[in-house]
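S., here's the first fold you wanted:
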Amino acid sequence: MTVHFTDRPDPARTDAGIVRASTWHVGTPDRQRDAVEAIRKAWGSRAWPHPGLLSYSVYAGEDGATLLHYSQWSGERAHQDFVREGRDARNADIDAAVPGIERRGLHTYELYRSGLRTEGDTREPGCVVIVDAEFDGPDPARQRDWIDAVFEALGNDIRTPEGGISAHFHTSTDGTRVLNYAEWESAEHHIAALAGPGEGIGPPSPLWERVQKYPGMTGGGVNRYTPALSMRAG
């Protein structure tokens, strides 16, 4: 199998058993660009490493210092096979081109629920917003309940944010985190949506207050990224 470069992954694909997400800290916009090019060369010069790797995508952080990595896998065994057989050589090439990369926060997720684009919507995301929620201990039921609370609040929100395309909520396999991979037309659309009344995207309401002050939620964050590189088997 060869490497095929694509515009974007499909976060809602049903054959993805797990998602791996992590952040690399590279320090500067120049190093961001160099690291993306090093990833392209390290992967493009080799065969696709495993049939169980369904997609691999990289995003440049708005901060000019980070790269987000989002990969879809058929299951945990496929990822472990890659770690044993294919990861080190690629990382060695990347590290030789861009020394000093700090690899942070690798987590494993499963897709739980998506708010999909409407039929016929052909907009391409110019921005991916990652919303993280962290909880004070493992509780899969709590993860799902918090996500369901978000959808309930969205369902009662008559103000649909302009520029929003889709949202894909993932639960970490350790039961402690939620990741929302949200596609937007542009960073400017997301910034404008945040500038509305209330904290976050939704207007003030008891439903959004429950989301924002959910018992046991200890932290999280919102970060914007620009799509930089996406690959699948050719």
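And the second, which I think is the more interesting of the pair:
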Amino acid sequence: MSDAPMISVRGEAVLEAEPEIARLTVHVQSQESDRRTALDRLTERNQRCLDLVKSYGQAVEKLETGRLSITPLLKYKRREGDIRAYRGTVQIKITVADFGVLGELVARLGDLERTAVDGPEWDLRRESEVYGRAARQAAHEAVARARSYAEALGSRLTGLVELSDEGLGRPQERGVALAAAYGGTGPGGAGAEPEPIDLEPAAQVVRAAVEARFTVSPPDLEPR
């Protein structure tokens, strides 16, 4: 190990950025006295929802079907075979890239029969350049801080011993949560399209931090 003096520092960066995508979670339900009817109704409503989302083309970046279930509902909690209805549920996950259509899409999804919408959850893409920019700023901060300490001691940086990335952190900024009432068209009347909902994107905060150790030239510790 070198006997050269070392300086250890921590560099940090905090950036704010506009979100790049918005995620919606849609829950489609059916409830019927007959299992097969519940499944058929669920299939119809699920297809109607998927067709609506697909009609937005490239504005929707990703469309995924999550969990699907058909559950018997008992009249009494602890008595087997006494079923009052069957409930079907399917979860649909949507990633929207074009915020210009987001308010309209949310309103139209919420207007579908027995459908609930949760979201949007604003986010950055995994490959977003914001993460790289935050990491670079954290590294630059570490170098600047180490150089400042070295100059205060009458030294100069001579080498990098170690640079440790603490990882990128970003709190999830959550938008409005929507729970659309089950059961058909709204006050506008049959066939009327609902008004788009005004949604304001939430800024995303990205944090980066590094730990760094530098070798320095011998300090000048003589009193001045």
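Why I say that: The mean pLDDT is 87. The helical segments are 35-54, 102-110, 129-152.

Talk tomorrow,
H.
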